[in-house]
Amino acid sequence: MCGIVGLHLRNPELYPRLGELLTGMLCEMGNRGSDSAGVAVYGDPTWSPPGRGGVSMVDVSEDSQAVVAAVSGRLGHDVDVITVDDTYLLSADVNSAVLLDAVKAAYPRALIAGFGADMAVLKGVGHPRTLTSAWDLTRAQGWQGVGHTRMATESAVTPAGCHPYTVGPEQCMVHNGSFANHATIRRQLLSAGIDFDSENDTEVGARFIAKQLADGRDVESALKELCATFDGFYTLLVSNRDSFAVVRDAIACKPAVIAETADWVAVGSEYRALAGLPGVGKAAIWEPEPEVIYAWNR
To answer: How many domains does one find in the chain?
Structure first.
């Protein structure tokens, strides 16, 4: 099971409605995965202030004032923190990678949910309706959102096991399905010096994609390499701050639907996740073909 959703807005007039629309999409997928959920929101001016580096962090027991003091001390710059349920969204006038290093130095055991400019990542254990309410997700703004509802099969039900996996700057991956050879590829990535936060097979795919991108490949080439390397059944949605791409395995075993209008592009595990979008009645709607990479850019 598991449910994936993604919404890429082309019409700036819809940016104020991103959270509202994404909430409806995610909650429709609740019965595909009710043990945990997560979202990546691109472009919310409160959660990820423009022009600033950002880090999303969970599993921290200290209050926000203590976090500000600890990270600012390591960074040597002022840091702002917004608390959204159990997630701390940190921002500062530095590159996101620099901020990330300071956060890791201050809180080496904390879970980094995501990092990068213009991106906030929220994840937690519980039903999507409960989590989206706690996040007040309907009020979020932006140009792109990606979400996931999880029914755990490969690893524990913890925040570290939740999607999205955002292991590179502004990068995000959600996954429905399973990778049969993830243990072998995990060992190869560990040998290359790449660390992991969970036992989840999806994290192996996300780390693989991030390495491909870091080595200079574009998203489409990275996804082609993933299709050639990983065995299993899957639908993947990969995004960064300006793009959004979808691919299914060679058998197309896991469901997926794409809808496109002049105002937006949307992806869901089932059509009902898209049924409430404005203008969906006039959208072009199709199922992605096996191992065909569909990509859109801002």
So the answer is: 2
